[in-house]
Amino acid sequence: MTLLWASVLWVLASAAVAMLPMRHQYIPGAALLMAAPVLIVLIGMEMGWVLAVLATLAFVSMFRNPLRYLWARLRGQHPEIPK
Predict the structure, then answer these.
(1) Per the confidence metrics, is the pTM higher than 0.85?
(2) Which residues of the chain fall below pLDDT 50?
(3) Distance (Å, rounded) from C-alpha 81 to C-alpha 83?
(4) Rounded to an integer, what distance in angstroms lies between the CA atom of residue 64 and that of residue 2?
C-alpha cells in the first residue's frame, strides 16, 4: 500500500510542478525525473511487468521534452533551453 501512496504523491507532485513557471520547474522536475525510474522498478517488482510498462509509457509521455534534451546532450549536441 505504501508504493501506491508514493505513486499517487509522485503524480500529484508532477502535476503541481507542471503548473509552475518554466524557470521554477528545473529543480523539482529533476528530482521527479530521478525518482521515477526507482518508482517504476518498484511497481514492476510488486505489481508486475505490465503495470511497469504502462508506468514507463506514462513517464516518457510526461517527461518527453526533458528526455529529448538529455538525449541530445548525451549525443554531444547543445539544444536550446526554453526561457
Answers:
(1) no
(2) none
(3) 6
(4) 27
